[in-house]
Write a structure and sequence with these properties.
89 residues; 40% helix; 4 helices; globular; alpha+beta; single chain; 2 strands
Length: 89
Amino acid sequence: FWKTDAVPQMDANGGQSVINSQLVDDADIVIALFDSRLGQATDSAVSGTAEEIERAAASGKPVHVWFSDEPVERNADLKELERLQKFRK
């Protein structure tokens, strides 16, 4: 989990690069769970999580992705939900 396991450091390539090198590259397996948000886009992917999934898969690591089918709250961000649905397809 990037909020507790990544160590802050300066990186010319941005924060996602730090997360990738500290967490994704050392992972044996990647498990991604999505509810109603895809997340913030990076320079190379539709979201940080999508970038992590793509990076892990490209390196041959097992990647498991789940999407919630539970009803979303009435005040859900519909644009974000649309981005997530597009990514899911």
